[in-house]
Structure formats: structure tokens, C-alpha cells
């Protein structure tokens, strides 16, 4: 099983809503990532979890709140988002044995639209 | 700040042509350079390069890294319409800089 599964695939929310994006992997990877990708732009790193601990937060606004309940699951909680937060949110995982990224396995992404 | 620059930004060629995509980089404590292919959704992994001058090859795709000149190229021979995609280059640092920084990508279109 070499898949990273993300749900939902599409999400439309208002600026006052609270929602969550979910990501799951069963490859035994110990590092998991959230990336944000706007149209025709490269993925931008948001958060890195290594061995279930937050190791990198790329100065992401607090309206995005990551959570890693266990080594297979990664959530991104969303609250009071702005229309400019509309983007494709990609989850990824890697073996992360030595803290290095190495090959990232990406999920299909959750396309978020904020009205 | 780490920086990855890809060229050209876009490329349109006919099926059967050979293409070369370029990636130059600046990164603190270089560890590796990776190439990804992105069609409609998630990027898919192509190559990871850590050593200079050693070509990685997979079918019609090949890539090489020059750590002295800080660049990499991705070659695709005998292109097919299925090769149409955005090709992303990413570099990873080390020793406290363990994260991938992506370039803006090269959008490749293959005309039948």
C-alpha cells in the first residue's frame, strides 16, 4: 500500500465555518507534511510532523491548526479562513528516518474554496 | 533563503522530440534534489539525486546533478502526449534545514 489518502476531495466553506482536512498513510512513514498549492504555483510547505511532533511551522496563520493524532493520521483544522486561503491542500509523507525529507509521497489533495 | 529556479517556464514540442528541462538552486546545506511530475493533481516522484555526475535513468527519462555548478537537468527522449505535465524540481537541505523547496515548475505540452 503506497497511498496517501486525503478527505474530503473538495470542500466549500464560509469564512465563519470550522472544518477539517484529513490525511492517512499506512506505509509506516514517520514524517508527514501539509503543503498549500495555488493555481499555477509550486507547492508551499506549511507544516512538518516528525515522529508525531510538530517540527516545522512555516509561519502559517493560526486559523490553520495541524494535528497528528498518531503516526498514520494528520489533520488540518480550519477556522475563520479568508477567500485567499482557497487552494489545493496537499498532504505528503516520507520515511523521515534521519529527519531528512527524501522521497515524498503525495495525496491527491483537498481542493478548498472559501466563500 | 533557499531558492529553486526552473527554466523554461513552459515548453511546447511535437511528439517524438527530445526535451531538456533545467533546474538551478541555492540551498543551505544541500542534501538532495528531487524531480516530480504533476498532472492534474498530486505530484508523483521521478528521481532523487544526491551525488554529482551520476545519471539516474527510468525509461525515456533521465536526470543528472552538478553540485559544483548547482544545477540539474531532466531529459525526456521520444516524448509522448502522456508526458504533458508540469515538472517540478525541489531541493532539500540538511542540518536543521530539512525541508523541500519547490521551483515554479516547467509546463511541458506535447502536441500529437
Outline the structure in words.
The complex is a heterodimer of chains A (115) and B (112). With 115 residues, chain A is mainly beta. Chain A is built from no helices and 11 strands. Chain A has strands at 4-7, 10-13, 18-25, 31-37, 44-50, 53-57, 64-70, 73-79, 87-94, 105-106, 110-114. In chain A, strands 2, 4, 5, 6, 9, 10 and 11 form a 7-stranded mixed β-sheet that branches. In chain A, strands 1-3-8-7 form a 4-stranded antiparallel β-sheet, with no helix packed on it. Chain A is globular. Chain B is an all-beta fold and 112 residues long. In chain B, strands 2, 4, 5, 9, 10 and 11 form a 6-stranded mixed β-sheet that branches. A 5-stranded antiparallel β-sheet of chain B has the order 1-3-8-7-6, with no helix packed on it. In chain B, a hairpin with a 6-residue loop joins strand 9 (85-93) and strand 10 (100-102). Chain B is globular, with a radius of gyration of 14 Å. The termini of chain B are far apart. The mean pLDDT of chain B is 92.
What are its keywords?
heterodimer; A: 115 residues; mainly beta; 7-stranded mixed beta sheet; 4-stranded antiparallel beta sheet; 56% strand; globular; B: 112 residues; 6-stranded mixed beta sheet; 5-stranded antiparallel beta sheet; 11 strands; 0% helix; 59% strand
Summarize the structure.
The complex is a heterodimer of chains A (115) and B (112). Chain A has strands at residues 4-7, 10-13, 18-25, 31-37, 44-50, 53-57, 64-70, 73-79, 87-94, 105-106, 110-114. By secondary structure, chain A is an all-beta fold.
End-to-end C-alpha gap of chain A: 36 Å
What are the low-pLDDT stretches of chain A, counting only 5+ consecutive residues below 50? Answer: none
Number of beta-strand segments of chain B: 11
Please name the two chains that share the biggest interface, counting residues whose Cβ lies under 8 Å from a Cβ on the partner chain: A-B, 21 and 21 residues
SSE string of chain A: EEEEEEEEEEE
Helix segment count of chain A? Answer: 0
The pLDDT mean of chain A sits at 90
Structural class of chain B: mainly beta
Instruction: Write the element-wise H/E pattern of chain B from the N-terminal end onward.
Output: EEEEEEEEEEE
- Overall mean pLDDT score of chain B? 92
What oligomeric state is this?
A: heterodimer
Distance between the termini of chain B: 41 Å
What does the largest sheet of chain B look like?
A: 6 strands, mixed
The amount of beta strand of chain B, in percent, is over 45%
Silhouette of chain B: globular
Poorly predicted parts of chain B? none
- Helix coverage percent of chain B: under 10%
Radius of gyration of chain B: 14 Å
Strand content of chain A: over 45%
What is the number of strand segments of chain A? 11
- Structural classification of chain A: mainly beta
Amino acid at each position: 500500500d503506497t497511498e496517501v489518502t486525503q478527505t474530503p476531495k473538495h470542500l466549500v466553506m464560509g469564512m465563519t465555518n470550522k472544518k477539517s482536512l484529513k490525511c492517512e498513510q499506512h506505509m509506516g512513514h514517520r514524517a508527514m507534511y501539509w503543503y498549500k498549492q495555488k493555481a499555477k504555483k509550486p507547492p508551499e510547505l506549511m507544516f512538518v510532523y516528525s515522529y508525531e511532533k510538530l517540527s516545522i511551522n512555516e509561519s502559517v496563520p493560526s486559523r490553520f491548526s495541524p494535528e497528528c493524532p498518531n503516526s498514520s493520521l494528520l489533520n488540518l483544522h480550519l477556522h475563520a479562513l479568508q477567500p485567499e486561503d482557497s487552494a489545493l491542500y496537499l498532504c505528503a509523507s516520507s520515511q523521515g528516518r534521519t529527519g531528512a525529507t527524501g522521497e515524498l509521497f503525495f495525496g491527491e489533495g483537498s481542493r478548498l474554496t472559501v466563500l | 533563503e533557499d531558492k529553486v529556479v526552473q527554466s523554461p517556464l513552459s515548453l511546447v514540442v511535437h511528439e517524438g522530440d527530445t526535451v531538456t528541462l533545467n533546474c538551478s538552486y541555492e540551498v543551505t546545506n544541500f542534501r538532495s534534489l528531487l524531480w516530480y511530475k504533476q498532472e492534474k493533481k498530486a505530484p508523483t516522484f521521478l528521481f532523487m539525486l544526491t551525488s554529482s555526475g551520476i545519471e539516474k535513468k527510468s525509461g525515456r527519462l533521465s536526470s543528472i546533478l552538478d553540485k559544483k555548478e548547482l544545477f540539474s537537468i531532466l531529459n525526456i527522449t521520444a516524448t509522448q502526449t502522456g508526458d504533458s505535465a508540469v515538472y517540478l524540481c525541489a531541493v532539500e537541505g540538511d542540518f536543521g534545514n530539512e525541508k523541500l523547496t519547490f521551483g515554479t515548475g516547467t509546463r511541458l505540452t506535447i502536441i500529437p
